[in-house]
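Re: Re: ligand-bound prediction request (bumping)

Still looking for help on this. To restate: I need the protein modeled with glutathione bound, output as structure tokens. Inputs repeated here so nobody has to scroll up.
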Amino acid sequence: MSSNITLYTWPTPNGIKASITLEELGLPYKTEGINISTNVQKEDWFLKINPNGRIPALLDGSQRVFESGAIMIYLVDKYDTDRKISYAPGTPEHVEQTSWLMFQMGGLGPMQGQANHFRLFAGARSDYGINRYIEETKRLYSVLESRLKESPYLAGSKYTIADIANFSWVRNAPVSLEIDLSEFPALKKWVDEINQRPAVQKGVDVPQTGRTPEQLAELFQNCRAKIDGMTNSDKH
Ligand SMILES: N[C@@H](CCC(=O)N[C@@H](CS)C(=O)NCC(=O)O)C(=O)O
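Reply:
Sorry for the wait, this slipped through. Here it is.
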């Protein structure tokens, strides 16, 4: 199928949801690397594509799409005619697919994002913030664990965008937040399996930054050490 897609992205948990989806669908696309540490995502030209000033965002011809969940839904609605990574609207599995996608968009992403903020990037140390958001992230992992004990994939027997969305956040938790996935064996098995998919291996590295997994692990370790070295600023 013809497309004229440009993906504006950076290899972060939200960014790779879009690139993995494009890779799984085998769609040709151009990539514009948006290095979020330089705040290019707040520039006027970019705000015309995503008024929220965040990645990922996508242009398909003159059609803009922003919010990673909306991008995934747009791509499967328009291009997944073979239902490779989605269920057909009107089926019970499609309702499950939407439910688990929204679980990620409204729950796991925001909560783990706050855990990342307090544990890795905050300007002041808050043990309350660290504990609250890491515990909430783990609670959400236990919800995924329960589902994956009863079903091979989140929406049913098929790998879908619901899996891509949740996987994109869970995969890095051991190195970023030191969450031990062996506490969640069904979740760990699912992550390990999805990690093997060729489209996932390509999609997690878009755009290529040249940073190795070891360098990323060291970066996270340094971030945690910086926070640990601060005095806890919570008021009691
Ligand atoms: N709900 C949005 C969240 C997007 C988001 O937070 N993107 C982060 C990277 S993972 C970002 O652009 N951060 C830079 C910033 O906040 O300026 C989505 O799912 O697309």
